[in-house]
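Appendix B. Chain record.
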Amino acid sequence: MKQTIGAFMIRISIHSRSISSNTLKNHSFSALTALRPMMTRSRRASKKIAFVDDEKQNNRLNALHFSDAALREFVSDVKAKFPNTLFVFFADHCGGGQAGNFNNFLIPLAFYGSGIQPHTVDHFASQRDIAPTVLDLVLGDYKKLAPDFSGKSLARDTHFFADYFRNGVFGWIENKRLIEYTPAADATACFDVSSPLPVPVTCTAPEKRYKEHALSFGNISQKLLFQGKTGNFHQYRFH
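Structure tokens predicted for this chain:
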């Protein structure tokens, strides 16, 4: 059985520091999710369209078409009533079916809100970075308000990492380098991930240091979790 644990990697982030407030009690939070291709009701896309002849693929394309239209309506309706809303768009997993482990963990992320100027941050981050980023954008410095997040703020921090565990392989991404460590074989492989497809490279001193970061982060995170002491994470933060 294939087993996957750990956070997904985020390649693209769009954000701003222009949204702020003073207290949590003035904010409400809402979440929407979709688990499989399905038809959604939309004022702009109410009829099925024949994109392609293949029925299965056509259903997928229509699901995307209807979902896009419904999302646009949702954002427009919310903005009309609550203009200072911060929208966060991301996936809990990718489409799957990609070769290797790395590309099966890439997901998009976007922050959208009033006054935000679009820009792209081209580095890898993790789902664990979303909550501290939201807190940072809405209330201020997350390290003062909630210092025990294991993630970082995409609006404030500059050094990021991401990790995954799949098929017995532990992956760690830092500074555009991917380290894949297989504990059962005590084997390490290194890759350059500055381009869309990982390129194998020789494991040198920096990569070996990233491997140490990976093992340390994994061990500390699990230890604190199992001991019920995740509130002590700030004592171990190395960046």
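Further analysis of this model is presented in Appendix C.
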